[in-house]
Please model this.
Amino acid sequence: MKKILKLALVATAAIAALGAQAQDYPAKDKTVTLVVPFTAGGPTDRVARDLAEALRKPLGANVVVDNTAGAGSSIGAARVARATPDGYTLLLNHIGMSTMPALYRKLSFSVPNDFEYLGMVNDVPMTLIARPNIPANNMKELTAWIGQNKGKINLGNAGLGAASHLCGLMFQNAMQVEMTTVPYKGTAPAITDLIGGQIDLLCDQTTNTTSQIEGKKVKAFAVTTSKRLTTPALKDLPTLAESGLKNFEVTIWHGLYAPKGTPADVTKKINDALKVALKDPDFIKKQEALGAVVVTDKRVEPAEHKKFVQAEIDKWGAVIKAAGTYAD
Model:
C-alpha cells in the first residue's frame, strides 16, 4: 500500500511539474533546440535557420538549429521522439515524415503517434531538369527522347527517401518507363554530375535548382505544381500535368513537431509563435527567394497539420510499395 501511495505521489509531482513548466514556458535561461534531420547548408537547413530567427521574438526564447542527419531524416526524428516533452526540443522535417513509414521496415518511433503536430511551415515546388546537352528543348521533345531511349536513361537523386528520389519514382510511374536510378549522398553531387553530363535527368526542389536554371547550367522542362509558378526564372515552365502527365503534383513541404506528451499549454504557445513567424515579412521574403511558399491555410493548425501528413503517408505509401523500394 505504501509503495502504491509513493508511486501516486511521484506521478502527481510529475504532473504538477509539467503544469509549472507549461506556465513558465519558455524559461528565460533556456534555449529551444530546433532539430534538422539533414546536414547543414541544405534546403531544409536553410528553412530551419530562417524559421528559428523568425520564432525568437514571438516565442520569447533563443532558438538554435541542431543538425542530426542520416537515414532519410529518421535519425533526427527519432531523437526528437525520445526527447523530454517540455517544448525545448522541436523538429523541423519535410515530406520525409510521410515516407519513412513505408521506406523503413523498422522505425523506433511512430510518425502518427509519437509527435505533437505544431503546424505546417511552407510548400516547395519541384522542377524537372536535365543535362545541358540533352537533345530536347521542351516537354514534347523530351517525352519523345525518353521513348526512344528506354533502358538507357539515368535518373539521379539525392539519396533514398530524398525529395528527388520520390519525385523520380512518381515520374517513372507516370511515364511508364523504368530508368536507371543513380542515388547520391546529397543534392550537390547529383547536380554536379547532371551539369557534367554523367546523368540525364533530375527532379528536385526549386531551392536547389533555380540558380542552376538561371545560370543556364541545366535545361529545365517543367514544374511539379498544379499551376505554373510566378518566380521569374521559372514562370515560363509548363506544369507536368499540362504536359500530359495527368494529376502529377509533387510539392515538398515542411512542418514543425514536438515530442508526444508535450503539455497542451506549451504546444499552443509554440503554435501561436509559429503563426506570427509565418507572417513575418522578412521570413516570407527569404522563403520566396528560395522558391518556397509560406503556408497560410488551415494546415497551420495542429489538427489539420496531422490530417494532412496522414493523407501524405497514404499517398506515398502506395507509390513506394509499387516501386518496391525499402530500406532496412
Remarks:
- The longest strand covers residues 115-124.
- DSSP finds eleven helices and eleven strands in the chain.
- Confidence is low (pLDDT under 50) at residues 1-18.
- The first helix runs from residue 2 to 24.
